[in-house]
Amino acid sequence: MCGIFAYLNYQVPRTRKEIFETLVKGLQRLEYRGYDSAGIAVDGPNKTTTDNSKGICLIKKRGKVKALDEELYKKDSLDLDEELETHFGLAHTRWATHGEPSAVNSHPHRSDKNNEFVVIHNGIITNYKELKKYLNSKGYEFESETDTEVIPKLIKYVYDNRECDNVSFSTLVERVIQQLEGAFALVFKSRHFPGEAVATRRGSPLLIGVRSKYELSTEHINIQYNSAPYYSILGDSSVNPKGAEAPRASVPGALFKEGVQEKNSHNRPDSSNSLNSVGDGKAVEYYFASDASAIIEHTNKVLYMEDDDIALVTEGNLAIHRMNRQAGEDPVRAIQTLQMELQQIMKGNFEAFMQKEIFEQPESVVNTMRGRICFDTSTVVLGGLKDHLKEIKRCRRLIMIGCGTSFHAAVATRQILEELTELPVMVELASDFLDRITPVFRDDVCFFISQSGETADTLMALRYCKERGALTVGITNTVGSSISRDTDCGVHINAGPEIGVASTKAYTSQFVALIMFGLMISEDRISLQKRRLEIIEGLRVLPEMINKVLSLDGEIKTIADELFQQRSLLVMGRGFNYATCLEGALKIKEITYMHSEGILAGELKHGPLALIDKDMPVIMIIMKDACYTKCHNALQQVTARSGRPIILCCQDDPEITKNAYKTIELPQTVDCLQGILSVIPLQLMSFHLAVLRGYDVDCPRNLAKSVTVE
After folding, report:
1. Torsions phi, psi of 154, nearest 5?
2. How far is residue 300's CA from residue 283's CA, in Å, rounded to a whole number?
3. Which residues contact 47 (CB under 8 A, 6 or more apart)?
4. Quick check: bond before 108 cis, omega within 30?
5. What is the pTM of this model?
6. Which of 8, 155, 550, 610 is least crowded, fewest Cβ atoms below 10 Å from its Cβ?
């Protein structure tokens, strides 16, 4: 979804050109999230201001970050060589939700024509219509169609109605977010508070990087709690945001003028509770971003913000505020060290990130297994789950919840998990799970699968299950993500950063992680030992098998040359390979924009067979497993209707080869792992089809990498 990046240099001289370059580079690192426009906000001359403070210059452009970069150097009024000792700049990539892609709808959004307050936002404000109506009634004019614009207008309203002149920036933001419903990560800048930054989040990710050539004053920041009551400018019609347990007042006039809040000095950083540099002049730089990929080239020291945290940087000091303290919450935010290398988010010699990530799968599955499987003793230990193992073994049901590719990873492993755990396994799409208000009980174990760990629907499902007392398990690829923090226990799949919007290596690593869970749970089942050993041996040789499949890339490219002008494509299979059909069809849809459908071969006669003729491309997955004969019957039905099936099959299977139009012969492994090998040709196929059709493989239209809104 939208990408947030902001950079504050305190007592670190930077030219305006260097600041531009830092902001643009940050946005380029976030391009993979998906976007349609971009913008930045920096200090600059603004002749409409009446005081001595510098105005804020907004530069926004529809299209790619490259177009924005070119636009920056067309601003004659900005001196690129001017050196700024302290400066705070905002940058944003927008993924349209409210209003079409355009410069006026892109971020940063402003409070008024003087740009007194500007804000960048990732998320959706669900009560923006009510707020907009109220602000319109107070004479505030709107220029965009977005939900975000109510935020800068609202902070201007709060500022205009402040009870005294020394109200702090973070107090203003605190009062604003009390009015907001929905999900947001926000970063604010104001000409009234030069050199200050305020950031906050609820439901959308936000982290802060810290860099200084001097030693930092602390590695842990104590949270400062405020005791201000909750007020709504909309009166009783507004809902008290979750977690705000303070007393509530509903008289709009009393909101700011009556001095009802505690002294505003409570939002000034207490030096004993803030982070800064201990060097001369406290020279320090701060980076605010939606994810770590935008920060890693600058620093590996980061702080992950929690929901309803308010981070304030003033005079080089970083402090964290919260309005109220909840029972059991951690009163400290720790500076963490990122375990990521810059080269991991670079393309190297590949045409696209997606292609690179497909070819990284031999290493990524090894990284998922490393330190967790001992092949000599045939034991599996998932450290993140071992403390809850007894509770998991006592459960009555497993519920696996995800969206898109993560959902397919759950479908792919459901059958083997049922076999190894001897428990019923429900597989749920997070959005549908919530829509049905699905019954969940205390003796359920719920898995939440998400590459980013920030998927909005999956996060909401997690909170739903926690409220009902179920044990929650996270399966994520992102250390420090919301799901990894909010679940009771979990597994990091360690696939490494995935930049391409279409997920590839995260899928196969999720697949392996869930298989390992089944192996760990079944370790004491004597009747399952033969099966366990077979699977563990399959995992041992899996990287080698994946390399063999990747060597078929040229052959797959030849087939793609025949298919790329087609309008539709069917992918069929059953049993362990049904999930492969769903995932392969999704990859083709995502990046080639061809209609593609994954079909359960057992359902062929119940409708899909009507689509089969000599012109309909059909890919069938027929492996030597328990469904081999049934899949062979489906093949006969397809060929009887003049279908020309392209078949993914095991090596040396003449019976299949003679009935196929084309074959892709794959090495055979244990049945429950075959889906990992059979999905890779479809990943490669989708990549080649997209390239041949002339599309951007890594940034498909209308899609975002991290879906942080419902």
Report:
1. -70, -40
2. 17
3. 55
4. yes
5. 0.74
6. 610
Mean pLDDT score of the chain, rounded to an integer?
Answer: 88
User: What is the full DSSP assignment across 440-455?
Assistant: --TTEEEEEEESSS--
- Please state the φ and ψ torsions of residue 419, each to the nearest 5 degrees: -70, -45
Strand-pairing partners, residue 448, are 401, 474
Active site residue 2: yes
- How high is the pLDDT of residue 681? 97
Please write the tens of the pLDDT for every residue from 623-668: 999 999 999 999 999 999 989 999 999 998 888 888 889 999 999 9
Q: The tokens of 253 are what? A: 């006039």
Kindly state the helix (H) or strand (E) to which residue 365 belongs, with its residue range. Answer: helix 361-369
CA distances from 671 to 7, 37, 400, 613, 627 (A): 50, 46, 21, 31, 10
DSSP E strands in 171-272: the ranges are 182-190, 197-202, 207-211, 220-222, 224-225, 230-231, 248-249
Read off φ and ψ for residue 593, nearest 5 degrees: 65, 20
Of 248, 238, 220, 221, the C-alpha closest to 323 is: 248
Tokens of 78: 């900005």
Beta strand 207-211 with 284-289: parallel, antiparallel or unpaired? Answer: antiparallel
Looking at 2, 395, 489, 649, which residue is catalytic? 2
Size of the chain in residues: 710
Statement: residue 519 has pLDDT above 90: yes
Q: What are phi and psi of 130, to 5 degrees?
A: -65, -45
